[in-house]
Amino acid sequence: MRLPVRLDAVLIQAVIAAALSFAHLHDLASAAGQDGWKAWAYPVSVDLLLVAAWRRLRSGASKAAGWCWFLVALAASLGANVATAGLLDLDNVPAWLRILVAGWPAVAFLGGTLLAHTAPAAASVPVAVEPEAAGPLAEPEPEKPQLPVPHVPAALVTHARKLADEHHARTGSPIDPDTLRARLGVPAPLADAIAARL
C-alpha cells in the first residue's frame, strides 16, 4: 500500500520547525501566566490562524485579508521564537507582553472568523428578462469580451499531466480542475487553463 504522504527532507524539516515553534509559543504563553491547557492552546491558535490565512492566499481570491492575517500570525510566531531565544527573561515577563498574550485569543478568533466566513465577492449572475409581446425587437447585446487565458509554462503542463495520470491510475477517472488546482497549488483560472491543455 502506498503512503498518501511522501517523506522527504523538506517534510521532515517542516515537522521539526513546527515542533520547535510550537514549543516556543507554549513556553512564552506559560511564562506570561497562562498555565495548563491554556499554554498549549496558544500555539494551536497561532498555527491555525497561519493555516487559515495561507489557505485564503492559495485560493486565488481576496488576498488582502489573507496577507493581513498571515502577517499577524507570523509576527506572533516569530515574536515568540525570538523572545524565547534568550532576549527575554522568561522569569520576569514585562506587563505589555502579558497583555499581548492575554489579548491573543480575541485577535485569533476575529482573524479566523473573518477568514472563514468572509466570502470573496461573487460575480453577478445576469437575470433573464422575458421579452415584451407587443414591444419592438431589441438589438442583440454585444458579446462579452473573453478574459485573457493565463500563460501556462510547458513544465507546469508536463507536471500536471503526470498528476492527472497518477490520479487516473488511482481513481479510474480523469482529474477535475478543482483537484488539479489543489494538487498544484495554483489559482482557479490557471488550473482551468492547465486542465484545458490536458
Gross morphology? elongated
Total number of strands: 0
Estimated helix fraction? 55-70%
Question: What would you report as the Rg, rounded to the nearest angstrom?
Answer: 24 Å
Mind describing the biggest β-sheet? Answer: none
Mean residue pLDDT: 82
Strand fraction: under 5%
**Termini, distance in Å?**
28 Å
Note poorly predicted spans.
none
What would your notes on this structure say?
The structure is a single chain. With 198 residues, the chain is an all-alpha fold. α1 packs across α2 and α2 crosses α4 (95-117). The mean pLDDT is 82. The chain has helices at residues 9-31, 37-59, 63-87, 95-117, 154-171, 177-184, 188-196. It is built from seven helices and no strands. 17% of the residues are buried.
Question: Characteristics of this structure?
Answer:
198 residues; mainly alpha; 0% strand
